[in-house]
């Protein structure tokens, strides 16, 4: 059967020192514009974190060019095919960290959990002396997680350190951390080691890579992603639905953004409740004067606000990567 998907979605990160991150951000922004990529990229002194979409040839050029730079030679791209762009805009920003953790003292290049390839994770995950730990936020693991995984009640990854005390009972176990693409696990597993946990591992490439390489066996529900798709199917072997409609409680994995823009809650809402609530997650949100029109999808395109991709870009500065 012919594959008509013309686009790639790339998910990637790399912990590597970046000198003058603001200058790099400016150059990198222009480079992505040259390739007509869209998405979100974070540049920090500690590295790069991104998810972008584009035509296959443009994404391939991006990956080849990045890997030609010694700083990013080991970057691991998770590549998914798609019908069109998964983003409307391109944002390249500088931040203190490539994922907000407040764990500035941790350098994953010096110490982190043992990386497990998806095939290794699959062989190891059901052993009696193994604990699988989800380090993602509540709204992410609510719609999908690995079977028997331990989840934490956190709204943001920066809350992870204060929850580690709840894991003391597992100190004599092998702990395997996982997240969407692997980036949170780099510091989460390092922090566990710092707190005295001895046998710490992480799923390399996260849920996405496990789905691509191993068919997603025993991942229950769907995987929350940070693009226009909201969630994606992972498990092609034994899929299940674990989430329930936020309104009526029936089994449902249909993710909706609340129609009230001041709420914008990302929750499962079944199709029936979606129409009855006009895309809102509560009666109060349904009655909100700024409620957005509901079209049955539960996805609302953000206002582009006259988006100009060349704004704040100095055109004379181009990204120069090493060719060797």
From TrEMBL:
Keywords: Oxidoreductase, tRNA processing. InterPro entries: Rhodanese-like_dom, Rhodanese-like_dom_sf, Rhodanese_C, TrhO, TRHO_N. It comes from the Bacteria. Signal peptide: none annotated. It is an enzyme of class 1 (oxidoreductase). GO terms for biological process: tRNA modification. Residues 126-219 form the Rhodanese domain. Gene3D superfamilies: 3.30.70.100, Rhodanese-like domain. Its EC number is 1.14.-.-. It holds the Pfam family Rhodanese_C. It catalyses: uridine(34) in tRNA + AH2 + O2 = 5-hydroxyuridine(34) in tRNA + A + H2O. GO terms for molecular function: oxidoreductase activity, acting on paired donors, with incorporation or reduction of molecular oxygen. Belongs to the TrhO family. Catalyzes oxygen-dependent 5-hydroxyuridine (ho5U) modification at position 34 in tRNAs. HAMAP family: TrhO. PANTHER family: RHODANESE-LIKE DOMAIN-CONTAINING PROTEIN 7-RELATED, THIOSULFATE SULFURTRANSFERASE/RHODANESE-LIKE DOMAIN-CONTAINING PROTEIN 2. This is tRNA uridine(34) hydroxylase. It comes from Thermoflexibacter ruber. The gene is trhO.
């Amino acid at each position: 059967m012919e594959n008509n998907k013309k686009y790639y979605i790339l998910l990637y990160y790399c912990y590597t020192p970046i000198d003058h991150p603001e200058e790099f951000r400016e150059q990198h922004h222009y480079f992505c514009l040259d390739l007509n990529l869209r998405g979100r990229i974070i540049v920090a002194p500690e590295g790069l974190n991104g998810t972008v979409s584009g035509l296959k040839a443009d994404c391939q050029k991006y990956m080849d060019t990045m890997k030609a730079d010694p700083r990013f030679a080991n970057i691991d791209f998770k590549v998914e095919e798609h019908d069109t762009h998964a983003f409307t805009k391109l944002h390249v920003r500088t931040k203190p960290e490539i994922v907000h953790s407040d764990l500035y003292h941790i350098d994953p290049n010096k110490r982190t959990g043992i990386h497990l390839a998806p095939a290794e994770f699959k062989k190891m995950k059901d052993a009696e002396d193994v604990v699988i730990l989800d380090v993602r936020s509540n709204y992410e693991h609510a719609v999908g997680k690995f079977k028997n995984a331990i989840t934490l009640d956190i709204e943001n990854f920066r809350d992870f350190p204060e929850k580690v005390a709840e894991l003391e009972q597992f100190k004599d176990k092998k702990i395997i951390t996982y997240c969407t693409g692997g980036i949170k696990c780099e510091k989460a597993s390092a922090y566990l080691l710092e707190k005295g946990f001895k046998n710490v591992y992480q799923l390399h490439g996260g849920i996405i890579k496990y789905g691509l390489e191993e068919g997603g066996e025993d991942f229950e529900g769907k995987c929350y992603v940070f693009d226009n798709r909201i969630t994606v199917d992972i498990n092609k072997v034994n899929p299940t639905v674990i989430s329930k409609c936020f309104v009526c409680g029936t089994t449902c994995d249909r993710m909706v953004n609340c129609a009230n823009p001041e709420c914008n809650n990302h929750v499962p809402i079944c199709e029936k409740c979606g129409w009855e609530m006009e895309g809102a997650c509560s009666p109060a949100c349904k009655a909100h004067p700024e409620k957005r029109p509901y079209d049955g999808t539960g996805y609302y395109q953000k206002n582009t606000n006259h988006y100009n991709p060349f704004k704040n870009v100095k055109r004379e500065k181009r990204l120069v990567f090493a060719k060797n």
